[in-house]
Amino acid sequence: MKKTFGRAAAWLVASALGAAAVYPLVEGQLARTRNAAGLARVQNSAHRSGEELTPALSLRVQRLEGLLASWETIGGCGAGTSTGAGGGIKWIGHSTSGGLFQLQELGTYTRINGGDYILSLNNQVSKDLSEKWNFGVSVPLVYKYYHTPFPVITSDFSNSGLGDMSVFLVRRLGEINDTTVTATLGLPTGTDYVGSKGTPFSQEKQLGIGRLTGGVIVDHTLDEIWGTIVLGGSFSYRGGENKYGNYRGPVGNLYAYSGYFVGPFVPALGLTLNRFFGVDRNLGSDQQENVFTVAGTFSLEWSTDWLAILGAVSLPYGWDVQGKQDQGGANPLHPGLQPWSVGLGVTVSPF
Amino acid sequence: MRAPALLQSRVPWLEAVLCLGAASMGLAPSADGDIWWHLAAGREMVARKALLFTDPFSVGAQGRPWVDVHWLFQLAVYAIHHRFGLAGLVYAKCAVVGLGSLVLLSALPNKPGSWLRPLFVTLLLGALFAARSLLLVRPVIITLLFLALFFRALERFQRDGQARHLWPLPLAQVVWANAQGLSALGVAVVAAYAAGAGLSAAWGNRDLWRSFRALSLTLGGCSLGLCLTPFGLSGLALPARLAERLVPSAHNVYAYTIAENVPPFVLERWSGEFWHLKWFFAALALALVCGARRLRASHLLLVVEFSVLAVLSNRNVLLLYWVATPIAALYLAPVLQAWSRRYRPFGPRVAFALNAGALVAVLGGSSVAAAQEPALNEPSPFREPTESARRLAVLPASGDVFSADHQGGYLIWQLYPRLRPFIDTRLVLRSAQEYADYLQLADQPQRFAAFQAKRHFGYVVLPVAYPDRYLSLIATLYKSPDWKLIYTDGTEVLFARRDIATEPAWDLGDPAVSARILADAQRRLGGTSKVWTAARLHLATLFVATRQFGEAERTLAPMHLPEADALSARCRLAAGDTEAASRISERLLQNNRDDVSSLNLLAQVALRQGNLSKGVHLLERALKVDPFDGEASAILANLEQTR
Q1: Between chain B's N and C termini, which has fewer beta carbons within 10 Å?
Q2: How far A343 CA sits from the closest chain B CA (Å)?
Q3: How confident is the model at residue B643 (pLDDT cuts 50, 70, 90)?
Q4: If 0-12 CB within 10 Å is exposed, 13-18 middle and 19+ buried, where does residue B33 land?
Q5: How far is CA B100 from CA B137, B143, B147, B301, in A?
Q6: A101 pLDDT exceeds 80?
Q7: Which chain A residues contact residue B181 at CB under 8 A?
Q8: Which chain A residues touch B292 with a CB distance below 8 Å?
Q9: C-alpha dihedral (B256, B260, B264, B267), degrees to nearest 10
Q10: Which residue of B288, B597, B641 is the best one to mutate when testing the A interface, meaning the one whose CB has the most A CBs within 10 A?
Q11: Is residue B284 a contact partner of residue B303, using CB atoms and an 8 Å limit?
Q12: Based on the number of CB atoms within 10 Å of its own CB, is A346 exposed (0-12), middle (13-18) or buried (19 or more)?
């Protein structure tokens, strides 16, 4: 596991460096697209004849290239949205704006019964392609720890590494972009058949499902003087059944969040209703599951133009148990409180 | 089969090549304005026999508390300058860079037959050559040496686990903390190794708990060392204050207006100076992928730390190259070695030839670049107001001096205490609002009169082209009845308040004046050099800015260069002769169909003539060649506003 995690970290940093390496090229292409759109707007509109153009004559005629002499260089001192995922935690405050791209890191700790827990770090980079479109990539790193008290031998095991990466495309609608539609495509990058001592872990302990997943999220934001309200819903196809007979069923949810502006702070309360369409299966066998859950969330966000920090806690309650109890029968599922999560996130919008 | 000699570790002259090669990268005259207030501070401390705790030098911050954590560096550079002059400072900088590179080399394992060290030599020299514009005479050079010392000690400890490597670090941290504000990097580097050991131990490598404890103790010692400055908690807070200023944000006046703080990828839109950074990132990514299986967490953390710093601010690119190059070599060398051996006997020979060729090319390029630089015993041309300062030294000391911030240090060095500038580059002494107000004087020169009414400056010293931000202010002062132009060589201007200057004002429209300026500049700079050509272009720019179009044309006429023709076209356009401006630009376009400057000018002409479609077409061509061109973008923005 250590090697897997280390390798994933190396690949993650290498990917970030690779992205930095191609950034100037991508930025140039985006600027060309922006310029072309601006020129088309000008060409297609009636120019007010006789309007005096603001003088834009530059006297800088030398173009600086690389490997300059000491006196030619520029350096030296002197003047010269969130589509985050994880534990029902949602950014709804001011967040950040205006940067060339947005980098969002959201770490969540989910406490499961009996000392089990899941740690996840979701790394998300998104970029506004235009005023209406946004595109992003999400790279989750996951650590799952389980403590299983077998009748004779107690076993501790963990599974960690890269989860299922996803790409997403956001379309903003309305005159003030107050409605967003997000389409997500999940890629099967997380391992889906890892086990211990020859026995594969059950499907929920795997890092991925090994299949493409997808989802659609619709958000509508109501901006008020005192704060903000976000209403929305989503539907996710979680991959269906893989070749090992593991199945993750689709899920839909409806949610409402409301935040109150206190200077740079935004405390917020949220409520999310989840409905699972069918129970999940492990190696072909149904698993017990609360088909309905409702989660209450409290978050506190602090933000500046380029940096936002979020702390949040989410507490779900589940009911309508369906599916079969595990063969061991140690932990039958009942309606009631579900694994809770706490999260800490940072968003930066540099340049 | 044995690998060729240059690719083996135990080559006796490898150290010499690295040391001399790295040192040669710094062979350029001093181009940074900070060094002058450092020298002035050293001189003042020697004179007072005491440290400085408040600012004695500038008008705008006089008497304010000054956390001068550079005091050791300042005393050292003053001593060197006092004995050996400015050239001595440049040679001392080169020596420190050469020494630092040797320390970095000694941090790497020296296994017989390994390609690690030869590859590192080529990579480091290449990286330093690319970033040579950042090898300035300033305290960051000391930071390079300390970073190398820390890296060496921590790598050696990581290899053999002997705590004796770590003991000197807290002591070194104390010296570093009193030489530069970047000294917090020492703590950050130790923290990366401690976190790496802690993570590895937590993941099951129990032997590393001992290393973690030793590194944690060292981290504590270094953190304590960081506090040991004469400035107490203020000294400790300084690195955080400086780091905060690097974070890019539309509201951070320091991030985008101070040249060295601008993020390198933003700078790349306007200048090719940081063309190499993307390639360095790509090479670093390749190294991490090659070494993913055996990558140490400490190395990964160091790469992340220094990459983030480099992306935030162009001045940190040098630090990234310095620290990440040995890490990249550590992971690339074994892979390259194994890969080339699969193609014996030619693989190692080809690798040898490539490494040797790259090394020779870098050293050759560096030699050529150094040979083209002006003399080392003078400041780099156009950077400092050398001639204005010479004149101010004998003019009446009435009122203070308003100058460009980057030139304030030089004026302090030359004129303090007789005359003092309003501002210099010690921006920690000034609030963000004060700095923004200062910048507005250049960007909106009509504000200067009200500012002058409060400050009563006696003189104004400004640069013409490096940067060209002050051109509007120069034009405003030249027209003002309250000021007299009393000196210019085309690259700097000196104005005096009319009531204190007894000498006549220079009339830039007088051919005799321009002939005198040219003759004087030619005598100082030589009549054929690249510097002389640049100076002549600056003078012509000054003439255009002050609307002396005839003199501008006369200055440009003998030059026969595309830049001169482009400026000449702009001069004609500004004078209203659109036909001549178009003719010159079309001729330039025949020679280079991607000449953005000419496309912009022709676009402006077409738009002024009401030919929107032609103007937009020309603009489209310009923006295809350079999508970030400032002038083309400004024309497009204006068009969009008026549509």
Answers
A1: N
A2: 21
A3: low
A4: buried
A5: 15, 10, 8, 22
A6: no
A7: none
A8: 6-7, 10-11, 14
A9: 60
A10: B288
A11: yes
A12: middle
- C-alpha distance from B251 to closest chain A C-alpha (Å): 8
Q: CB A64 to CB B273 under 8 A? A: yes
Question: Residues A18, B257, A94, CA angle at the centre, nearest 5°?
Answer: 70
Question: Smallest CA–CA separation between B11 and chain A, in Å?
Answer: 30
CB under 8 Å to B559, separation ≥6 — which residues? B533, B536, B537
Q: Which residue of B has its CA nearest to A73?
A: B133
Residue among B382, B468, B640 minimizing CB distance to A41: B640
**Which chain B residues in 176-205 lie under 8 Å from chain A, judged by CB atoms?**
200, 203-205
Among B257, B225, B253, which Cα is nearest to B239's?
Answer: B225
The answer, yes or no, to whether residue A98 has pLDDT greater than 60, is: no
Q: What is the C-alpha to C-alpha distance for residues B617 and B603, in angstroms, rounded to an integer? A: 8
Residues of B within 8 A of A66 (CB-CB) are 130, 272-273, 275-276
The residue ranking higher by pLDDT, B120 or A268, is B120
**Contact check, Cβ <8 Å, A18/B282:** yes
The upper half-sphere exposure of residue A223, i.e. CA atoms within 13 Å in the direction of its Cβ, equals 6
The interaxial angle of helices B116-130 and B317-341, nearest 10 deg, is 140
For B355-399, how does the pLDDT look when each residue is reduced to its tens digit (9 = 90+)? 999 999 999 999 988 888 888 998 988 889 999 999 999 988 888
Residues of chain B with Cβ-Cβ distance to A307 below 8 Å are 247
> Would you call B134 an interface residue with chain A, using a CB distance cutoff of 8 Å?
yes
The verdict on whether omega for the bond into residue B345 sits within 30 degrees of 0, i.e. cis, is yes
The neighbouring-strand residues paired with B497 are B483
What does the pLDDT look like over B299-317, one tens digit per residue?
Answer: 999 999 999 999 988 999 9
At B190, phi and psi to the nearest 5? -65, -40
- A-chain residues within 8 Å CB-CB of B437? none
| ipTM of predicted complex | 0.86
Q: Are strands B401-403 and B459-463 parallel, antiparallel or unpaired?
A: parallel
Three-state DSSP class for residue B63:
coil
Of the candidates B276, B303, B406, the beta carbon closest to that of A76 is on: B406
The residue of A25, A65, A73 whose CB has the most chain B CBs within 10 angstroms, and thus the best one to mutate to test that interface, is A73
Lowest model confidence (mean pLDDT) among B217-226, B253-262, B280-289, B450-459:
B253-262
> Would you state the structure tokens that stand for residue A106, as one six-digit string?
């959201």
Reported in sequence order, the residue ranges of A101-212 that DSSP labels E, i.e. its strands, are 102-111, 117-128, 133-149, 154-162, 166-173, 179-186, 195-196, 199-200
pLDDT at B230 over 70: yes
- The residue of chain B nearest to residue A50, with distances taken between CA atoms, is B610
Residue A46's pLDDT is 55
Is the separation of the CB atoms in B169 and B186 below 8 Å? Answer: yes
Q: How far apart are CA A103 and CA A260, in angstroms?
A: 24
Mark yes or no for CB contact A350/B372 under 8 Å: no
**Is the minimum CB–CB distance between B34 and chain A shorter than 8 Å?**
yes
Q: Which pLDDT band, with edges at 50, 70 and 90, does B16 fall under?
A: very high
Q: Which pTM does this prediction carry?
A: 0.72
Whether the Cβ atoms of residue B427 and residue B462 lie closer than 8 Å to each other:
no
Of A27, A70, A75, the CB nearest to B28: A70
Report yes or no: A66 and B133 within 8 Å, Cβ to Cβ: no
Q: Which two tokens stand for residue B615?
A: 């103007």
* pLDDT for the residue numbered A100: 61
Residue of chain A whose alpha carbon sits nearest to that of B307: A17
Which residues of chain B make contact with A304, given a CB cutoff of 8 A? 249, 251
pLDDT at A55 over 50: no
| Cβ-defined contact of A56 to B635 (cutoff 8 Å) | yes
- Name residues whose C-beta falls within 8 Å of residue B641's C-beta, 6 or more positions apart in sequence: A54
